[in-house]
Amino acid sequence: MTTSKSIQAVAGIGLMAIILPVLLLCSASTSIRGHPINDLIDEGVVLHQNWLAQASISRSLGEATRNYRSRHGRDPPPQFGEWYEYASSRDSLVVDDYDNIHDDLLPFWSLSPNEIKARTWEMLANPWNNIEFVKVRNGNVIYRDGLPISHQWMLNGTADMIRPFVQWLPDMDIPLNLNDEPRVALHHDELQLVLETARQAYAAAGTSSHSSFSDVRDWKPLHDEPLPTSPFVERSWQPTWEEFGSVACPYTAAARKYNVWDVSRLCTSCIEKHTTLGFVSNWTTSADPCHQPDLAHLHGIHISPAAFKATHKLMPVFSQSKVVGYNDIRFPSPWNYVEEAKYAPNSSYPDPPFEEKQNTFFWRGTTSEGFSAFGGGTWQGMTRQRLVWMMNNASSSSDFQTTVLLSKDHNEQDKNRKYYAKTIELSDLREHIGAEINVHFVKDIARCFGRDCDVQYEEFQPQYTPSIDFQENWNYKYLMDVDGAGFSGRFIPFLLSKSLVYKAGIFREWWDGRVHAWRHFVPVDIRLMELPSLLAYFSGWENRKMASNSQGVVEVLEQPHEAEAKRIAEAGREWASKVLRKEDMEIYMFRLLLEWGRLTDDRRDELGWRDDL
Ligand SMILES: *[C@@H]1O[C@H](CO)[C@@H](O)[C@H](O)[C@H]1NC(C)=O
Ligand SMILES: *[C@@H]1O[C@H](CO)[C@@H](O)[C@H](O)[C@H]1NC(C)=O
Ligand SMILES: *[C@@H]1O[C@H](CO)[C@@H](O)[C@H](O)[C@H]1NC(C)=O
Ligand SMILES: *[C@@H]1O[C@H](CO)[C@@H](O)[C@H](O)[C@H]1NC(C)=O
User: Fold this and answer.
1) Which of 127, 232, 323, 414 could share a disulfide with 309, CB 3.0–4.6 Å?
2) pLDDT digit string (tens) for 545-562?
3) Is the pTM of this model over 0.85?
């Protein structure tokens, strides 16, 4: 049995509100294997196997077609045969599970093809919207050149991803979100109505009578004059939780009822649903905003996003990631596709075997998660800042306490007890962890204004940390991936390496569901409350005592679980090299665009791929 209670913890220098849990274990544990992480790792293996068993069944086009029908209740889209050939000739392991595509597109079946095209045009017709097209016309990809370099890569990269299969696509406009942040959030009641209409429209389709897309597609050309209106409102540098981040939740949900939360205390009801003893036990649920009102103050996207133009109207926006509660259509990030951040070890930057790496927990990055202005200290709640503070500057206040869960008490009499919680000063954390901690902001403080820059400079001292070559990451056993303003540019290359990846984040990408927590990476709650315990488990926990007249004595309270760390690192590496390849991004995009092509086709109800048509 366990109880949790929270302690008040506000940084001594008055800069950082941080959340620290105290987990108290009262009475002997019922766990036979000891540490709860052992069980979570076992569950990760099963979760992965179960997923694979339904994701990758079909061995032929006929089977893939039948499986599509039983999964989605209608025929696959036109050109499905070409898609299958494309996927199988590239050894796609995932044949059947493209549920993310289905889920993202479903609401749009509530709109007629003409309405979807009109809304696409409406967004593209006003550059203020930060939505740009990539078009397909007569089997060619068309996109604009001359955008700022910060955006141009997105269009070029998307076009590169589409080009290998563009000959099989009908004419279409694809409206891309140029911002990192998601754009479309329907209110709960409206979304329920939309989904109901959409399901009916989707199911109404009879037996397919046409197997090729219509020739006339009617994508309206843009005017020379920009449209003066916009469906989006601008909310950059402002709180967005109440107006957008939580609106998909029912009115009875905690996210809607408690719209102010004191984040200096741990909200235990916010974590109960997705954690076990503080560890993330359900990665999917951990991103659901509805039971987590405190998220309003714990993430840049909700606190103060850098670029935020959003709408409650169902607009078809293709985004590289979204948080749960938004209705953007996810597609594989062209950043990953063109390998802007690439896993490419060489003789100067090798990726040594796990055992030979430096025993270090490593992170480098910038304060890009959100924008801090007006002296409000909004950065204090952002995940990246909390991470760096927790790992470095706890020394600025020795009043902070945290707990770590350890396997068994050194002096414990009760033999049944397999793990226990130990309270420590946060400032002593680095002293106890068996690995070195090397977690810093680099070079400069980004995305801030005025006093919020000065205070962060003082707190984080980024000027003392030079930026690194991306390939230096492979030197270290433990790599942290933590949300910034949107999709993670580094998660896939990190997974491909021989290092163990920790990940904290609420953004979800095209590969969501394909990669499994505890099997391929170590999930970390967005509150970071269990990070000390995770570090203690994988890297070990020591008491280093300096006796006054002798050598230092090291008392090991937790042996490092390096075998487990290595096993997860290897499983992640192997899996990523099979299902997160550039080919897999093409295959996902190909299938997404066939669905988009059917969804926007005037004859969509009669359209479907059948081998007898
Ligand atoms: C994007 O593509 C255009 C046209 O192919 C090319 O001229 C331009 O140099 C590319 N820009 C980038 C940033 O890759
Ligand atoms: C996570 O929670 C959801 C919703 O309660 C549930 O459907 C799913 O099976 C859970 N997943 C795991 C791995 O426990
Ligand atoms: C290794 O890669 C880095 C870039 O990441 C490059 O600067 C360096 O020249 C490469 N070294 C060798 C030996 O190829
Ligand atoms: C924060 O940590 C950095 C790196 O350890 C240190 O240089 C700096 O002095 C600390 N700042 C404060 C205010 O303690």
Assistant:
1) 232
2) 655 555 667 788 889 999
3) yes
